[in-house]
Amino acid sequence: MERVGRHARTDGRNCQNRKADQKTIMDLLNRIPASAGGAGGSLNEPIVDGICSDGLYRAILRFEDKHFGTQRSGYVDPGGKMLEQMQKLAAPPGSAPASPAAAPKPAAETRLDILRRNVLNVGAAVSKFHGAKTSWDEAWTAGDRVQLDRLVQLAVNHIDRLKATKDPAGHLLVQLPWWGEVFGRVNIEDGKFSGGKRDRDIEMKYGYPLSVTETVQTTSIQPALLLFAQGFCYPLPSYNAINASAAHEIARLNLQTD
């Protein structure tokens, strides 16, 4: 299991919110009476991978306020006190709740897991990308933000496919199979080639591999989303260009990696 809910005390961004984990929390809350802070069977929210619905979020906050006072974190941690209390209250009368020690430990988070989380949160993270004088918020038009949402969905689906892919040794992938990659309609230049650059055709890229020396230039049509093996991602608005190495460093300084 991974964290379910939203970060209430910071920017309200979504936690991991895997579908199976959301269902687990909804089932527990539905088995807990409303008088005890639960949903009493009233919780019937659509489940979207990576997104905690408003109804589920409110139900988590109600339960937390009832049993944990002013904590107000907004999420349920695997193996945490909130989950333990839910399991205790949802247990049938006369039965003993499962021992926390007997509960399976959550799998270690891989770089693909971290990347997936950062990609899902990249819309909220746009405001973190600041230059010395120019706010990145000013560079993002409403149209760019709509297109970025579409790129995010493409990237998340791509990461989920990679997480189910095995390497030649038969192990599941834990990070991107190359240093970086890009989603979006872009032009890519490589400083290693004669004349200082090698232009590739401007076409839609779906996880196209990037190297450290390359520069990504967006068109007037669409922004781009750069992903990196270490778990970082970088959103580039339309009418902009950046060296992949520089994008990696800015993302490293601004995005969560553990």
SS-derived structural category = alpha+beta
Structural domains: how many: 2
Give the terminus-to-terminus CA distance. 16 Å
Count of β-strands: 8
Q: Rg from C-alpha positions?
A: 21 Å
Q: If you average the pLDDT, what whole number results?
A: 83
> Residue share in helices?
25-40%
Describe the biggest sheet?
6 strands, antiparallel
Number of helices: 8
Morphology call: elongated
- Strand and helix order: EHHEHHHHHEEEEEEH
Beta-strand proportion:
15-25%
Which stretches of 5+ consecutive residues score pLDDT under 50? 130-135, 193-199
Folded structure, characterized:
By secondary structure, the protein is an alpha+beta fold. The chain has two domains: 99 residues, no CATH class; 144 residues, no CATH class. Helix content is 34%, strand content 16%. It contains eight helices and eight strands. The strands form two sheets. Strands 3, 4, 5, 6, 7 and 8 form a six-stranded antiparallel β-sheet that branches. The two termini are 16 Å apart. The relative contact order is 0.11. About 5% of the residues have low confidence.
